[in-house]
Amino acid sequence: MTLALPPRAVRPPAPAPSAAGLHATARIVARADTSGAVRLPVLDGDGPLALRRIRAGAGQARVCVVSAMSAPLGGDRLAIEATAEAGTALHVTAAAATVALPGRTGETATYDVRLTVGEGARLDWLPEPLISARGSELRMTTTVELAPTARLVLREEQVLGRSGEETGALRSRLTVRRAGRTLLDQETAYGPGVPGWDTSAVLDGNRAMGQLLVVGPEFEEEPTEVRLLGGAPDGEPGDGPAQGVLAPLAGPGALATAVAPDALRLRRLLDEAARAVAG
């Protein structure tokens, strides 16, 4: 007698390792409770983006972004979403600089920052510099949605190459909308494949550039005054010629833009702009 045996189950072959990079999205939400205190009902790190609470004063939540591994590498798709809901104050900083590195695939990495600020809320987005290492290729976007009475302080610093190193390719776009209307939309590109980025018309040998954006309804009544940054004030001896400018936007805000030989001097210029706006 012949027995009919069931067909042998065939285990499907294990999928080949993906050549694509890491995909990760970290999320932060600040919300006011009935007592007026600001809570963080969503504090969700992911992949290399770890989030840590920082002790803060009354009425404000503070978060630090900590890198859990080297990222972004070529092919990585990273994102951070931060929301300050109505009536809250959220302060976000970082523990260290972010270094864009080449990956195994040669693909472009992306790093997307999406910020939302509700009515009467304030968001301070103050990360450490982004460093474009040799051989890396990164496209970074920052998109901000502001309610009409929202306030924003956003600092963005970029350094082309580590010490003594050539830069990678870096493209960056910043888009800010207030009450659904565009307040600022700009794009920059540096490094291999970008014509003229290192000429006297653009960076003129500098390797650090950044900006400080401050938005709030108070600028509608009292726009900030144009101010040169880094020069000698009132004819007094200084460090050299101006390397930045603080100017009002065509809307309720002020934008400081600066270039410098290194990250330390860039931070000094942006701190100067922050004091000018606060004063």
From TrEMBL:
Cytoplasm among keywords: yes
Subcellular location: Cytoplasm
Gene Ontology molecular-function annotations: nickel cation binding
Signal peptide, first to last residue: none
Gene Ontology cellular-component terms listed: cytoplasm
Keywords from the UniProt entry: Chaperone, Cytoplasm, Nickel insertion
Pfam families: UreD
Coiled-coil region list: none
InterPro entries, per the entry: UreD
Protein family (similarity comment): Belongs to the UreD family.
Assembly and interaction partners: UreD, UreF and UreG form a complex that acts as a GTP-hydrolysis-dependent molecular chaperone, activating the urease apoprotein by helping to assemble the nickel containing metallocenter of UreC. The UreE protein probably delivers the nickel.
UniProt function note: Required for maturation of urease via the functional incorporation of the urease nickel metallocenter.
Protein's name in the database: Urease accessory protein UreD
